[in-house]
């Protein structure tokens, strides 16, 4: 499942540099996560690094992008082929 940033985001800039897939970028009002690039850090780390550093816990599962660990691993494999 991809992650999303909620409206509780305080634009602290902590999450963006932690994303190994460069899925996080500054949106119009708050940071946003591109669900097509988010693998919940599968392939890189044991846990999502953005959630780990977020001081307000505003990064949650994106219910519109339900993916298993296997699907996230396949997405990771596709992303590293593109780079």
Write the layout of secondary structure elements.
Blueprint: E1 3-5, E2 24-26, E3 31-33, H1 49-53, E4 59-61, H2 69-82
Antiparallel strand pairs: 1-4, 2-3
Key terms for this structure?
globular, Alpha-Beta Plaits, single chain, two-stranded antiparallel sheet, 4Fe-4S, transport, two-stranded antiparallel ribbon, 83 residues
Question: Helix fraction?
Answer: 10-25%
Q: What would the principal axes of the Cα set say about the shape?
A: globular
> Uncertain spans, ≥5 residues at pLDDT below 50?
none
The largest β sheet comes out as: 2 strands, antiparallel
Oligomerization status of the protein chains: single chain
CATH topology: Alpha-Beta Plaits
Mean of all residue-level pLDDT scores: 96
Give the SSE string.
EEEHEH
GO molecular function: 4 iron, 4 sulfur cluster binding; metal ion binding
Domain 4Fe-4S ferredoxin-type: 1-29, 31-64
Protein name: Ferredoxin
Pfam family, one: Fer4
Written account of the structure:
The chain is of the alpha+beta class and 83 residues long. The protein has one domain: 2-Layer Sandwich (Alpha-Beta Plaits). The protein has two helices and four strands. The protein has a two-stranded antiparallel sheet. A two-stranded antiparallel sheet has the order 2-3. β2 and β3 (31-33) form a beta hairpin. The chain is globular.
Give the structure's gist in a few sentences.
The chain is α+β, with helices and mostly antiparallel strands and 83 residues long.
